[in-house]
Amino acid sequence: TDVFINPTARSLWWSFPEEISFTKHILPIFQQFSDAQWVNYGFSVQFGYSAPFDFTNKVFLKKLSQIIPCQPANELKKDIYQEFRRQIYDQFRLPTQTEPKFQPDPNSPTVQLWPWMYGDTVQLGGAPQDANQYLCLTNTQLMMLEKWVEGDFTDDLELPEDDSTHVDISTLYHHTHSTLEQYPTAEQPLELDRAAMHFCLGGAFHPGCEMTWPMRHATMYRAPFRIRPRTDNNPESNYGVQLSHKEVMDDNGPLYFNAPGDITRWMAVPWQTDTSSCRSGYIPKYDPFLPTFWPARVPNHVLTQQDYETVMDPKKSKQERLEAFNRRAVWLRGLPGEYLDQIREMITEFGKLGIVEKREGPKDPDFPDVIYVESGVGYEEPESLLNNLLCEYIPSANEARYWRERQERLGGG
């Protein structure tokens, strides 16, 4: 949804909020980091339950949302938590203020910054050659965070008044409802759009199993969340064997009008092969689990059903339960053979992969009330839960250069 809003904002179809709401505009950004703990082990260590940046911790959330004026205030610190917010903001990978505007700075130490995800033109076989090596938040999200840092937002966070130390973030959005009928009639179409698009991948647009970079262009839309359709009066041109940048940006080009199949044609074909190829931790000396590509839709590391049962078993020792809770298995561990064998397997046996499902926790303060668990695995368990941790296929420098130049010809990036 964030990716769709960004070009909509640039086209003046969507006005930047006059008032920034903590729960509506800021908290969803942080929730995505916490939710990633169930699909990537690296995120679990830093953003998981009781981790250093646990955004489900009620004390932590209160510091993020509260505005308590300093007495006296000064230009550097208007309220007691402003520096805290600023240091959180400083963790994010920021765009440059030079042209082209809002492109990540290739000269900054980007890999350690948030989010820990590869970007559109990541090069895995050598030194980064492109500013889009790693993913950046959208321009709209960053502007909202800037307002938040300055204290120019509304603290509308309402935490439950009980003895719990943590909270399920999804229960804090008091501006949402549980059913469509509860929304005012005028808001229902937008909520239907949001429901359909919220679970789409927002990057990296490499491309692969996602709709990819054309969705960032405002010309793709006729209205907010509405694709501009191609009609019989403006048939698509025959681009020949090579699509030039000029043709891509032409007002009758592929970024302006779309017929059935025109959006998915930018994806990998078949998408399953690319899905199994893009994993995480491609520089093991840096981190074997990070950065990652699309963990929200293509999990990297998951909590198994067996470990979940251990966590839920009160007869087990606390040590056993904690070890089980903090253990993760590679989601693709069941794929057999080498690289080519595995991508073929993804096409024919995709249904054997596990599904990450929401389950209840054990009602124990050492564990969260909500746990996401892998279930429905059709493969026999390999000897190691870390089997297939890395994809052995890493493109050579020449291959990476080819794909980068190809994307430039297509107008990507």
TrEMBL record:
Residues 129-294 form the L-lysine epsilon oxidase C-terminal domain. InterPro entries: LodA_C. It comes from the Bacteria. This is LodA/GoxA family CTQ-dependent oxidase.
